[in-house]
Amino acid sequence: MEAAAAIIAVICALVVAFAVIAMVRAVRAVKRGVDRTVTQARRTVEDTRLKARQYTAPGAAGEVAQLRLSLRTSMRATQEVLRSGMADDSSLSESMALFERLSAHGRELEEDLRKLETEPDRDRVAARLPDLRERTERITHSADSLRWAAQDRARQFADDDLTLLSEQIRMEAGALRHWEDEAEAASPEPRPGAKPQAQARATDRAATGAPGAGQGAGPGGGPERPAINGRNDRWQAGYSWQKTKRPESTA
Taking a C-beta distance cutoff of 8 angstroms, is the pair 28, 16 a contact? Predict the structure, then answer.
């Protein structure tokens, strides 16, 4: 009895432990989903504010908002392309590592632009704006280069795969139409409207495959064969939809 009670207690403890672990994982998953939603909402609000500010704020303030929006858009698009491409192309891991290093410079520039956006001294803003504009162009150009290269690589792989698939389908379609080659080999004259390659192939097969071709009557040559009357009387149908020729009556 004591052993059975101990086993039941251990089983109950394991069930409770598994339930707690599952609950903790569920809570963490929900928390991650909420964090992603909140982050996405904040990002959307900030982008909307910057778009409105670049058109409504005059002078340097509007240009600062434009630089921030350009930087955020380029970095976000490159990050999405690299992350989605790594699932199919592991060679993009090195590109992702370079992008992480570039992101550090991008976050630093984003912070400088955000501080400059709230700077009350317009002369200071105008003095620092050329340097920040150059940094923004360099970072966005590097991010765009990585994104475009990853997209071109994925497009090239897709084109190569499509070319190989088309060739395999062409070969399979030819194999499925094998009855055309057999019918051409059985008939010495090509069918009307047949392709030039098919006609040549049918002629060659008829010339090389016919028994006794090129042999005439003579010593050791065997009896003469009757002239061809347009039909091969010895040819038998090989398919269910072709009727076998009936023998003539000997009565």
Answer: no
pLDDT of residue 78: 94
Give the 3-state secondary structure of the chain. Answer: CHHHHHHHHHHHHHHHHHHHHHHHHHHHHHHHHHHHHHHHHHHHHHHHHHHHHHHHCCCHHHHHHHHHHHHHHHHHHHHHHHHHHHCCCCCHHHHHHHHHHHHHHHHHHHHHHHHHHCCCCHHHHHHHHHHHHHHHHHHHHHHHHHHHHHHHHHHHHHHHHHHHHHHHHHHHHHHHCHHHHHHHHHCCCCCCCCCHHHHHHHHHHHHHHCCCCCCCCCCCCCCCCCCCCCCCCCCCCCCCCCCCCCCCCCC
Q: Taking phi first (over 0 means left), then psi (-120 to 50 degrees means alpha), and beta for anything else, what does residue 246 get?
A: beta
pLDDT on residue 230? 44
Q: Indicate whether 218 pLDDT > 70.
A: no
Distance of CA 80 to the CA centre of its chain: 16
Q: Which amino acid is at 169?
A: I
Pairwise CA distance, residues 8 & 165, whole Å: 60
d(CA 199, CA 201): 5
Distance, CA of 185 to CA of 64 (rounded, Å)? 78
CA atoms of 242 and 99, how far apart (whole Å): 68
Per-residue pLDDT tens for 133-190? 999 999 999 999 999 999 999 899 889 999 999 999 999 998 888 776 666 666 655 5
